[in-house]
Design goal:
69 residues
């Protein structure tokens, strides 16, 4: 609401249940929000996800040398 956002993105891969918790929490906080998961939805590898973030100047805590957060 503060930022007048209509979409929230997360970086879950589709492996494990973190995606379920993120999407349930987002839905509970903002039922009108659309939730997207680009890494999962576009089947990005870890290297492709890191490269995407670097290209878009998105701050992330991982690098190709240390790929795990």
């Amino acid at each position: 609401k503060k930022h007048n956002a209509g979409i929230v993105a997360h970086g879950c891969t589709g492996k494990g249940n973190d995606q379920v918790r993120f999407e349930a929490g987002i839905s509970a906080l903002g039922p009108d929000l659309k939730c997207i998961a680009p890494v999962r939805d576009y089947a990005m590898t870890r290297d492709k996800a890191i490269a995407f973030c670097e290209e878009k100047n998105l701050p992330i805590a991982t690098t190709k040398k240390s790929p795990y957060s």
